[in-house]
Write a structure and sequence with these properties.
Order of helices and strands: EHHEEEHHEEHEEHEEEEEEHHEEH
Shape: elongated
Oligomer: single chain
Helix content: 10-25%
Number of strands: 16
Number of helices: 9
Length: 319
């Protein structure tokens, strides 16, 4: 535990959980209320010592390292997420699985995964407020703000490394359900158009297919249900993890996702709103991964929310 950061030198011994983590990232996570600029300044000036030696920000911590932290000013107030805030309290009901190592939560549509860009808090900050004793809660992956469904959160640094390895090795499977415009051809099983992310002057991120400068991207698709020629419910399984990948891969095949305000089609969205849809119809339906401690494969499924279920039922009735 770090004590009296502003007035005294602290010494901490690195445990196995933080073995291999860069020291700058370790401080950013641990020293809540300390600006990043201050963290990099004490590293640059050599005021931080590891085993009595100066280190660079890229130094990777080793289990057993003794780290000296000089007196450093902490902001008087940390961002606080009130537990009784209705949206935050309801997250308890969204937890699909939890043990000592991970949380899988059914992220609500409309909630960002983390604060920033004008948002005072996101899902991870809310979870930290609900679990104040869990000091190492971190997102394993991300979902767009308007996408709902399975989101994996680690409770330990070693667990986070293990799960990130699964993402890199493509041994973690994520299946999304999306309602798309028109009749999706069953023969379209793999979409591999390369994608390039652009940031507009407003700060908005827009992704486009770019054969020359785009990054390799791959999504597998299969048809789950058809609603005449109006719409198709598809399962999308991303092999790579590019920004907005499923949304752009459906769009480039002429079948954008319902109520996608960035890549969608207005006429289709009007029809889907008539069917009751009030949000982007993209849902992270299930997640399969190797449990980092039990070493067993587990699958967690997130049920569709009321609005998505209502929309599908209305479309079935009309069909």
């Amino acid at each position: 535990m770090l004590e009296n950061l502003a007035t005294q030198v602290n010494f901490i011994t690195i445990d196995e959980d933080h073995h291999g983590q860069r020291i700058d990232n370790y401080f950013i996570t641990k020293l809540k209320g300390v600006p990043k600029s201050a963290i990099y300044r004490i590293l640059r000036k050599g005021e931080v010592r590891v085993n009595k030696k100066r280190v660079k920000p890229v130094y990777k911590l080793q289990a057993g390292d003794v780290v000296r932290i000089p007196p450093i000013k902490v902001a008087e107030r940390e961002e606080f997420v009130p537990k009784n805030l209705d949206k935050v309290a309801k997250l308890e009901e969204c937890i699909l699985f939890e043990d000592k190592y991970v949380i899988v939560i059914n992220k609500p549509s409309g909630m960002a995964v983390h604060g920033g860009s004008g948002l005072s808090y996101g899902l991870i900050e809310a979870l930290r407020s609900l679990r104040p004793d869990e000091r190492n809660l971190e997102l394993v992956h991300r979902l767009d703000r308007d996408t709902s469904g399975c989101l994996l959160v680690s409770k330990r640094r070693s667990v986070l490394r293990h799960l990130h390895e699964q993402l890199r090795d493509k041994t973690m499977d994520k299946n999304y359900w999306a309602l798309v415009d028109g009749s999706w051809a069953s023969k379209i099983k793999n979409v591999t158009e390369p994608l390039r992310k652009n940031t507009l002057q407003s700060g908005e991120r827009v992704v486009r297919v770019d054969p020359e400068q785009g990054k390799p991207s791959h999504t597998r698709f299969r048809v789950l249900e058809r609603f005449n020629e109006l719409a198709t419910l598809v399962q999308a399984s991303p092999v790579t993890g590019r920004t907005h990948q499923i949304r752009v891969h459906t769009q480039c095949k002429g079948h954008p996702i319902a109520c996608d305000d960035k890549y969608g089609v207005a006429e289709f969205d009007v029809e889907m709103r008539k069917a009751g849809l009030k949000r982007l119809f993209l849902h992270a339906h299930d997640l399969t991964f190797i449990h980092p401690k039990l070493e067993e494969k587990m699958t967690v499924t997130a049920p569709l929310d009321q609005n998505l279920t209502l929309t599908l039922n209305n479309l079935r009735r009309d069909k």
